[in-house]
Amino acid sequence: MIPNHEYIFTYMTNKSSLTFDGTNVLIKQGPFRKFNFAFNSIQNWYVYDDNQYRSMFITWMNDAGKQKKIQLFTQHGEQGFHALIDGLNQAIPQKCLNHLDKKEAFKIMKAADPKKVGALGAMIVIFVLSTIFMYPGLCHYFDFGYDDEVYVEDIVAGDYESRNVTLYGYPLQETLEETYTKGSTTTITYFVPIVGESWEDGDPIEVILKFSEDDYYNADEESLEFTGVIRNIWYEGIDSDEAEFFETEYGFEVSDDVVMVEATGEERNGLMEFIIWCVINGIFVLIFGIVYIRSK
Question: Does position 76 have pLDDT exceeding 80, yes or no?
């Protein structure tokens, strides 16, 4: 090691450096992380190579006798990193663990294999994100109940045992029609206010029925019962522009707490969201399994 020489290397936009003053080592990792310890307290060092980056693990004993470690990252071809390896090889070659099997080296350093950790971390992130995104659908799928006689007034009062319901009410004539085209396929979704027996002109709209042109409701527009799901979990429900349409186009007062009921014709809902959630997480479990097996 060259005293008072700063070994500098970068990974993406993050700069790291190591300086040896003849007694102590000062490591700077990014703009905020700093480590200062005696050079003779170094226990081991190990260079880990990956297709995307290179890294170095350094372990040392702090003043309390506890082993500490740091992993420094660099991109391939960094001369400062090569110089650091050469310096450590000249100064403390006996503490290098690169002659050992990777699994044994990580065990000595009490460190985790970055490939395993990275794959596991990615899997956890994907699991959390997919669960958050699919949360309403998963709630509907795992709702094994079915309420076969729910009226508009019950929904407004929150008086129902399950969100899977058969809703009884009177759909109004005023309709919002939304058309979505992807390639050669066009789908049409309808939104219709549905009210109870006591509703009168001027009363607020508190429940809106949603259905597609393929749903059973379209076959019998005089129907007063609609089997489907109450969509009021988290981000589900009527968008503000849809509510505004009924206010500006038809002069309705739409309640701030308006509830959307999707007429699906199914007594249990959320199957598609559950399947997508399983596929996404299944793929990452498979990837993690492959990475884990290869790393052994």
Answer: yes
DSSP 8-class letter at 31:
T
Tokens standing for residue 218: 């379209």
Average pLDDT, rounded, for the chain: 89
In words, the CATH class of domain 5-111 is mainly beta
Rounded Cα–Cα distance for residues 176 and 24 (Å): 73
Total-model pTM? 0.64
CATH fit for domain 145-267, picks 2.40.50, 3.40.50, 2.160.20, 2.30.40: 2.40.50
Write the single-letter amino acid at 172: L
Alpha-helix residue ranges (DSSP H) falling in the chain: 79-91, 102-109, 114-141, 152-157, 240-250, 271-295
Could you count the other beta carbons within 10 Å of the beta carbon of residue 58?
A: 23
| 92-113 average pLDDT score | 89
106 contact partners, CB below 8 Å, separation of at least 6: 46, 112, 113
